[in-house]
Amino acid sequence: MDAAAFYEKLRATRATACGFGPIAAAMLWAKKKGRKKGELLAFSNSGDVSGDYAAVVDYASIAFY
């Protein structure tokens, strides 16, 4: 749960993340509250619904504890 490392990974790989700010804020909040781990609860992308995987948007839900 390292917001700076998350940003650096996005930058280094030239990936994009809609809502980087809120994601980083959630990571920083979790760290401040003493949460030590993050767990991926679900992951999917728009291609799972449309069947078109040429260009997709990913969705994830993560719990911090």
What this model shows, in words?
This protein is of the alpha+beta class and 65 residues long. The protein has one domain. It has three helices and two strands; from the N terminus they run ααβαβ. It has helices spanning 3-13, 20-32, 46-50; strands at 38-45, 58-64. Strands 1-2 form a two-stranded antiparallel sheet. The longest helix has 13 residues, at 20-32.
What is the fold's blueprint, element by element?
Blueprint: H1 3-13, H2 20-32, E1 38-45, H3 46-50, E2 58-64
- C-alpha end-to-end distance: 11 Å
Q: What number of domains?
A: 1
Structural class: alpha+beta
- What is the strand content? 15-25%
Q: What is the molecular shape?
A: globular
Order of helical and strand elements: HHEHE
Q: Would you count the extended β strands for me?
A: 2
What profile does the largest beta sheet have?
A: 2 strands, antiparallel
Indicate the radius of gyration in whole angstroms.
Answer: 13 Å
Number of helices: 3
How confident is the prediction overall: mean pLDDT?
95
Helix content: 40-55%
Low-confidence stretches: none
- Order of strands across the biggest sheet? 1-2
Keywords:
65 residues, two-stranded antiparallel sheet, 45% helix
Question: In summary, what is this structure?
Answer:
The chain is of the alpha+beta class and 65 residues long. It has three helices and two strands.
